[in-house]
Fold this sequence. Notes:
- This protein is of the alpha+beta class.
- Among the domains are: 14-79, 3-Layer(aba) Sandwich (SRF-like), CATH 3.40.1810; 179-218, no CATH class.
- The chain has four helices and seven strands, in the order αββαααβββββ.
- The strands form three sheets. The protein has a three-stranded antiparallel sheet, with no helix packed on it.
- The longest helix is centred in the middle third of the chain and has 59 residues, at 118-176.
- Residues 179-183, 185-195, 200-207 and 210-221 have low confidence and may be disordered.
- Residues 84-176 form the K-box domain.
- It is found in: Nucleus.
Amino acid sequence: MARGKIQIKRIENATNRQVTFSKRRNGLFKKAQELTVLCDAKVSIIMCSSTGKVQEYVSSSTTTKQLLDEYQRRLKIDLWSSQYEKMQENLKNLKEVNINLKKEIRQRLGESLNDLSLKKLSDLEQDVDNCLRIIRERKLRAISGQIVTHKKKVRREEEENRKLRNGFIINAKEEDQHYELVDNEGHYDSVIRFQNGGPGIFALRLQPNEPLSSQWMSIHE
């Protein structure tokens, strides 16, 4: 059964288009290889798929660059001259832009102002004022951010101090439960005794009518 004629137009389905590209590329490379072997020809094929991949076939006895050089030599043309001219023109434009930017920088620093007209001087002054306004606004935002950060840090430190103080008071109250004062007449050098069987501590009492009395009382229970 004869195959139907394929209509030559763009394949809309991306998958089918890529499959067709791969099949026909392989067939084209196969024919190029046969041409190279049978006819001793130098062949180079370069193609780019719709996916951006570069496909290349080059005869084993040469390179693509050698073929292009031979092509230019035989036809007496220069394939790179137009490209080189475009690159030179682009380079010239970039140099001019660079020179103008450097000049603007010097003018904003107060240099190279002699050649400016009154209108350009006024425009430059306006530009500098706008830049200063933007810088001041940015500076104020930075200062405000630092103030907010500092306030948060102070509040955090105050909260930590409050917790430490409350913890100290609670611990002090708990420790006070382990101590009590000796309730007796007279004056004592030490009036503290331990509860719950702590080490023995003695209190020296001074009687009102006696110079010094060595009456000892053991508080150790």
